[in-house]
Design a protein that fits this description.
6-stranded parallel sheet, 21% strand, 465 residues, 3 domains, Rossmann fold, alpha/beta, 19 strands, pyruvate-formate lyase- activating enzyme
Length: 465
């Protein structure tokens, strides 16, 4: 009864939380398995940002309960945002659940599983579904327990929990609570441990990551707590690249813009959620910036780092979005020429202000607008990638590709790369000569040590000894 499989839905924060739970379970003697069919326990780490994500998790749970009816000792747990959002109503819908754990109680999962398994062995009364959804003071300081002896080339590091922004469409303040920051010293200690084990790139995570510490940590030398943290991470030996997600345009002050110029390890890639290019819609969404302010941030970053890469989040079909509003979004999309975008069709989230708004947009209109933006994205992403053909790019090799014999890595601009390499180069920064590009991927050969980076005839490792 100690084999556990965790299936994760949603964002990088959820991925990071799943890593933490897995590490805590290993420490308690559980073994993690790669598929649900080998598991005695299946935990679903859920997402509530869109209804579709919740329905997928509910459907998966329903499928798993069929197995539970033939094997009563098989355990099913739901944790994370859907658990927090829907609460005990999930038990009415899914009465075979063994465990329901909210976003501030991940660290309690090993104890809960231990207790449930003990009852199966006759060491106590068989409980009904174990429910743990309460807020917990200091829960943000329990999210570092994911470091294992295995090397991680790249790693997510949560620096805070919660969100105070209250966007009209968003369920996150309900599911994650108010902003709570971890101390800078603890974050630095965690990243130093990762670096000692071979991590080269860290991504700092937070719901509004550039709001980090604004209530707990004072501004120093005109620098926000978040920029102070970036400077500390810059000084960590062994860390070669720094990323973060997701920021909010409201918190993108000049000190953060200048950090892209001053911090050599901070990659020239910015995920900057816009949500809409219409000022009218931004007000309805309770997004406290304008289209003009958004473009000012883009321009200031391009002034500091001309080769900067941009990705964004866009919602199409927000209640009341007119054709004119959508055209404003299209114009913004084309003006910035995003390298990557996450385009979402608006989904009603009960308990949010937008759910009560009139003039809901039809699915047909949402789909049409979604496809139009995806078309612009294909054009801009392909154009950017094709512009790199013939150039030499620094690539961090992350491992073998899922298919074939090539290896996968990323540029500083977060472009996917495929190339011939070898296991000894995993975790290394290498130079790759780009010889082909698609919308999503750069292909090339490595320029081996000792060869001039400007050489137009790179050597393929597949032909070397």
């Amino acid at each position: 009864m100690n084999r556990v499989y965790i299936k994760t839905y949603g964002c990088q924060m959820n991925e990071r939380d799943s890593e933490a739970v897995a590490a805590m379970l290993r420490g308690r003697g559980y073994s993690m398995v790669d598929n649900e069919f080998d598991a005695d326990v299946v935990l679903l780490n859920t997402c509530s940002v869109r209804d579709q994500a919740e329905q997928k998790a509910i459907g998966k749970t329903g499928y798993l309960t069929k197995r539970k009816r033939s094997n009563p000792d098989f355990l099913i747990g739901i944790m994370g945002c859907m658990a927090q959002n829907r609460g005990t109503e999930l038990i009415d819908k899914l009465p075979d659940l063994d465990l329901l754990v909210g976003t501030q109680k991940f660290h309690a999962i090993p104890d809960h599983l231990d207790n449930i398994i003990a009852t199966q062995k006759g060491l106590g009364p068989r409980p009904s579904t174990v429910v743990d959804l309460e807020e917990e003071e200091g829960s943000q300081n329990t999210i570092r327990q994911h470091i294992s002896d295995e090397r991680q080339v790249t790693a997510f590091v949560s620096i805070m929990q919660g969100c105070n922004m209250n966007c009209a469409f968003c369920i996150v303040p309900k599911t994650r609570g108010r902003e709570r920051a971890r101390p800078i010293e603890e974050i630095v200690d965690e990243i130093e441990e990762l670096a000692e084990k071979g991590t080269k790139e860290v991504t700092l995570l937070g719901q509004i990551v550039n709001s980090y510490g604004r209530r707990e940590i004072p501004i120093r030398n005109k620098k926000s707590p978040f920029v102070q943290l970036l400077e500390k991470v810059q000084d960590i030996k062994g860390i070669e690249r720094i990323r973060f997600t997701s920021p909010h345009p409201r918190g993108f002050r000049q000190d953060l813009v200048e950090a892209y110029r001053d911090l050599s390890k901070l990659c020239e890639y910015v995920h900057l959620p816009a949500q809409s290019g219409s000022n009218r819609l931004l007000k309805l969404m309770n997004r406290p910036y304008s289209r003009e302010r958004y473009l000012e941030i883009v321009d200031s970053l391009r002034t500091m780092v001309p080769n900067v890469y941009f990705s964004t989040d866009i919602i199409v079909g927000f209640p009341g979005e007119t054709d004119a509003d959508f055209e404003d979004t299209c114009d913004l999309f084309k003006e910035v020429s995003f390298d990557m975008a996450y385009i979402f069709k608006y989904s009603i989230r009960s308990g949010t202000p937008a759910a009560e708004m009139g003039d809901q947009i039809s699915q047909e209109v949402k789909e049409s607008r979604n496809q139009r933006l995806l078309g612009y994205l294909r054009e801009s992403s392909l154009s950017r990638n094709e512009s790199m053909v013939g150039t030499t790019q620094e690539v961090l090799i992350e491992g073998r590709a899922k298919r074939g014999e090539l290896y996968v890595g990323k540029t500083r601009g977060y472009r996917n790369c495929l190339m011939p390499a070898s296991d000894r180069l995993v975790g290394e920064l290498v130079k790759m000569k780009v010889d082909r590009a698609t919308q999503s991927t750069l292909y090339g050969d490595l320029i081996l040590s000792g060869i001039d980076e400007t050489d137009t005839q790179p050597v393929s490792l597949s032909n070397s000894n």
